[in-house]
Amino acid sequence: MRRDGPRARRPGAERAGLDRRGTTRGTPEENERMVQTADHPSAGETAASNPLAYSPRLVKALPPLEVRGRVLKPYAMFADPARAAEVPDPAWLGERAAAVLGEGLDAGDHPLGFLILHYGCDGDYLLVSQWYDANMLKHWVRGLTPAADGSTTTAPLAQRDLVACVWELEVMRFERDAWVNTVLARGTLDDDARAAYLATTFSGWV
Asked: Where is this region: Disordered (predicted)?
């Protein structure tokens, strides 16, 4: 699959709480994974070779969403910055995320996480991540396919071991640092830590 985007200027990123690298450096069980690296062929799609090339992609932070007992920080990512006006309807995005997540929280789940809606060159993808057991992350990846009736279906990828592409990993790295600095460094997930985590977002180029 080709996921190289048009070349774009790289203006300064706008965010709250952390810089892009942060201030500190060092549900179906079959779909829960720890972080690896890859691209996203959708279910039933034949994988194609990606070019060894890189062009920045635009990321926009969206208002938090409440989904099945969790609060998620949504990000929209654009291979084509001309599509940046296509901000998803919050209700629609919440429904897509709810279709991925289980009915409620399991033991060890934290009610916080993030999601990435990636408008790619060859299709759209939804990545949903939820913090678990203090310092771990549950993660689901789905392809989004428009149906004939105008609705959108979510489906697992053909290659189910995939976790993220290089652009999405930048957002995940930011979220890792946000979690460390606002929650783990405090040693508690109280209301102040929760508010600090939700207020720490990224918008810019990756």
From this structure: 1-50
